[in-house]
Amino acid sequence: MKTDHPIYLFLSAGAEAFRVLTGGRRLVGAYRFCSLTIKGLERRLDAIFEPEGHAGPVYVVEFQGQAADSAWYNLLTKIGLYGEQHPLREVVGIGVFMRERDAPAFPRWAQGPQAPLLTAALDRFLPEWLASEPDNPYVAVFAPLMIDREEDLRARAPDLWRTVQTGRVAPEVRDVLTQVLEFWFFERFRGLTAKEIWAMLNLVTPIQETRAYQSIFAEGEAEGKVKGKAEGRAEGKAESTASVLKRLAARRFGPLPDWARRRIETAPVAQLDAWLDGIFDAESLVALIGPEAN
Fold it and tell me: Which end of the chain is more exposed for a tag (fewer CB within 10 A), N or C?
């Protein structure tokens, strides 16, 4: 599952997003969020929270969506590079893992009481928070990552969506959280169309009128309906991206079966972009776009 973009979006929502993703740690004072690349070695720091107007520590947050033995060394390197450029700042690294078992064992010295690294494993606290903070939209957006059974996630999907749409957050924050939740649902239910996902969420607004349809889930209307210029551009981009993806997938995995071609040709632009991002990491076509629907 691709995680970089939605995690970046989520952390851009501010201090409460930081608290939720790091297992309850709080930013004391004002902080500025950004993502930056250390020049020279071209190391990208996924998320930086820099203090504004006070001497609080700088937090370097790295999200690890799957196990990687080098995760701690990677984070230590980034902390060192940032500290080298800002030697008068205290820098703390937070490694966020989907599962506690994904946190690497080495180096052991980096995780002691006075060590420069902190660990946050989502499976240790988010399931409990989903129960104790049912009205918190920042928590609700991570439910698709924590609820293993698809049947259970389908049953809870409408309530999770409603939590994000009715939560007491600023409109721009709601927009960010909505995009993150949409992304997770689309990743978890790769075999469903946008309309099927909308039905799962029990939404009554016509899908053509929703922001999700127009941005993430935009699909071409069938049988030659007259489209506006904006929709026509979106359809053209989808067709072009699908064509590129099919060529690259065929070179990477061999001739594409008909079901795979159909899935690519009917996918929305956001999903096509996500598949393109992962095409060189995926070990198989099924790992990239999901299995054939029964």
Answer: C
